Amino acid sequence: MRNASVIGLGMTKFGKNEASLKSLAISACKEALIDAGNPKVDAIYVGNFLGGQLAGQEIIGSILAKELGLGPIPATKTEGACASGGIAFRQAYHMVAAGIYDTVLVAGVEKMTHASTNLVTQAINSAMDNDSNEGISGLTFPGFFGVVANRYMYEYGAKEEHLAMVAVKNREYAMHNPKAQFQKETSIDEIMHARPITSPLGLFHCSPITDGAAAVVITAGNTGVKVLASGQASGPPLMQDIPDLLSIEAIQESARQAYEEAGLGPDDIDVVELHDCFAMTEILAIEDLGLFEKGTGWKAVEQGLTKHGGKVPVNTSGGLLSRGHPIGATGISQIVQIVSQLRRTAVNQVEGVRIGLAQNLGGTGAFSTVHIFEGSGV
Amino acid sequence: MRNASVIGLGMTKFGKNEASLKSLAISACKEALIDAGNPKVDAIYVGNFLGGQLAGQEIIGSILAKELGLGPIPATKTEGACASGGIAFRQAYHMVAAGIYDTVLVAGVEKMTHASTNLVTQAINSAMDNDSNEGISGLTFPGFFGVVANRYMYEYGAKEEHLAMVAVKNREYAMHNPKAQFQKETSIDEIMHARPITSPLGLFHCSPITDGAAAVVITAGNTGVKVLASGQASGPPLMQDIPDLLSIEAIQESARQAYEEAGLGPDDIDVVELHDCFAMTEILAIEDLGLFEKGTGWKAVEQGLTKHGGKVPVNTSGGLLSRGHPIGATGISQIVQIVSQLRRTAVNQVEGVRIGLAQNLGGTGAFSTVHIFEGSGV
User: Domain Thiolase N-terminal, which positions (chains A, B) (predicted)?
Assistant: First the structure.
């Protein structure tokens, strides 16, 4: 396996966007290709989850190859619910590292805001095992993570304020990110009195419905931000099969793989983007990534250890909660932010960062990917 | 890159099946794992196209990992319309050849017959570029290949009888395949007087709506039927962008790659499964694969060169036309048949075969994969 690095970044503004699925993806891809110096591209991978259900559009890989003028190159869409983008990146990275392709374009895209909330909720539930009883019983994702949050507070002594602290932190980061969906200032008080979604989760604790696309270019060698490791794991797709509701096995296992491959541990990570689909999920993820002990994540949040000046700034882009969550694009947009941090050109730049980590979750723990990157350390 | 070979095969009966998407996939996977001797599996890839739209079910990769008891292994769905299966196989093969995984399970699955024909037709049209004018103008896949057939007959002198000869051949093969959707005998006369779909294509010239799943196990080394080469290409997803309606660029390019990688040419191929989504497509494909000169495929069919005793038997499983076309499963079921041929255990076994080829198409030429396999030559 040879080295591979990220040499191009592109991303649309996230939020409500009148552009089509295809147009969003083209915008992000063009920006990434220009940023990479318009290299010859050998293949394209696209992370997308709901193109068929919400936009009546599949074959997005082939469409992009044609529209971008890349010739008859192989094009592949990958799906793993909300981890579709991270999985696309992993495939592309391995194909470059293995020498099958020299340079690959990886895009993530989703178009959601044109559909009704009911339709979106129904489509997102295709990320549960609907042949068993979850979909039939009416469980939704906010429902699942609401249960988890209640149990977490009961077990470990966290309070609703700690969920709000995650949401405030990510909003404060998003306020400085012109590509984030939400830039309006908020407060603990506003968050705690916002419209309830599933107790204890309110409106600000849940990632929004978003349109958007992100893209990166990976190439062989060390000319960009180096990919140190790629981890991917699966976990139980059914709530009743999860042995411990307060740990996400797929995050732990994908992180274990990535740390091992990189020869690094959690203490070596300088900056993180992780999958805060709900405020609760961020607290679980900082624990499952090994950044903080199980059951202490809420204390780390309280002490400011997950922001600038703390142990490891988390979701400096604003995270899914405030940057937005165009599902297929999310995993790629996380990598855009981490690579920007390691290039020292990010919004909410963290000083002196050299090693960054991006973690992307799918379903209620059905998939997780972890990628670790190394900047030049300039 | 190290050698990799196919050591396990599984397939449900194709046709109308009351089982769910998940159950179909599990059946095929279990059969393939048993056939492979229940090896430790490092990852799973699944080709699926319409799970979200027709069954409200995505995350099928993770569901299979859980249901099959494979542990927290990486699981990935790939999509490239009707080439979703071929693309899944290609990813899996390269990950084994590159040494990322030692043994990978590859499944393809689709559940279609429970939905109305209108809904299925609409869902299949997500394999066109609907942001441009094709979907909007109401073009369907039978419409496209009907236009192609008319033009082919005009240019090269083929007659409707030649389309019927393809359909009869594939039905005759399917009559001996207990897993095929259609086993009832037919005749040129019945085919030519069947219900018209899009002139000149009638009912027997169009692949059916089908439920089914297929699976294979790939492992490092030479213990099974060896994978010699993998080609994948894209082509214009819009009819008006296709320079020559009578050639499918993605088939030509994917074949070119595969022949080059294998160090073989079309004359070295002993048996072929190809993507006869319509009778016309089989004639184009035998030409675009280089098995016969452009414009002469219909003569080859007339002379019996694509069946037992001819130059190269094509679609000995019955093909999409009569084996059936559960979209995501098709590419894998083609490989099941080719590997069976090279194991000398196939339905409609061809004598003395050593090299086989499987070609899987997506859209109106948006994707094609070509895989070449080598048996032990016993």
Answer: 6-219
Half-sphere exposure of B240 (CA within 13 A, CB side): 7
Asked if the ipTM is above 0.95, the reply is yes
Yes or no: say if A265 and A307 are a contact pair by the CB < 8 Å rule. no
3-state secondary structure of B94: helix
Among the partner residues B74, B78, B233, nearest to A234 by beta-carbon distance: B74
pLDDT in tens, B116-167: 999 999 999 999 998 876 666 778 899 999 999 999 999 999 999 999 999 9
Q: Do B81 and A59 touch (CB under 8 A)?
A: yes
How far apart CA B134 and CA A108 sit, in angstroms, is 24
CA distances from residue A261 to A60, A227, A341, A373 in whole angstroms, order as listed:
32, 11, 22, 12
Tens digit of pLDDT for each residue in A312-370? 999 999 999 999 999 999 999 999 999 999 999 999 999 999 999 999 999 999 999 99
Q: What distances in angstroms separate CA A54 from CA A120, A251, B123, B254, one per listed residue?
A: 7, 28, 11, 31
pLDDT in tens, A9-56: 999 999 999 999 999 999 999 999 999 999 999 999 999 999 999 999
Task: Return d(Cα A47, Cα A60) in angstroms, integer.
Answer: 9
**Chain centroid to CA A83:** 7
- Distance, in Å, from the CA atom of A45 to the CA atom of A103, rounded to the nearest integer, reads 11
Which chain A residues are Cβ-neighbours of B99 within 8 angstroms?
A: 1, 98
**B contact test, residue of A23, A41, A59, A249 with most B CBs within 10 A:** A59
d(CA A350, CA B178): 64
Query: Where are the strands (E) in chain A, listed by range?
Result: 4-11, 43-47, 75-79, 103-110, 196-198, 201-202, 212-220, 225-234, 271-273, 355-362, 367-374
Which residue type, as a one-letter code, is found at position B41? V
Give A134's pLDDT tier (boundaries 50, 70, 90).
low
Per-residue confidence (pLDDT) for residue A377, from 0 to 100: 59
Residues 6+ apart with CB under 8 A from B27: B10, B12, B19, B213
Report the distance separating Cα B168 and Cα B318, nearest Å: 10
Tell whether B138 is within 8 A of chain A (Cβ).
no
A236: nearest CA in chain B? B66
Whether B82 is catalytic is yes
Does A82 participate in catalysis according to the annotation? yes
Q: Domains (ranges, CATH) in chain B? A: 4-115+210-219 (3.40.47.10)
DSSP H helix total and E strand total for chain A: 14, 11
Q: Chain A closest CA to B245's CA: distance in Å?
A: 16
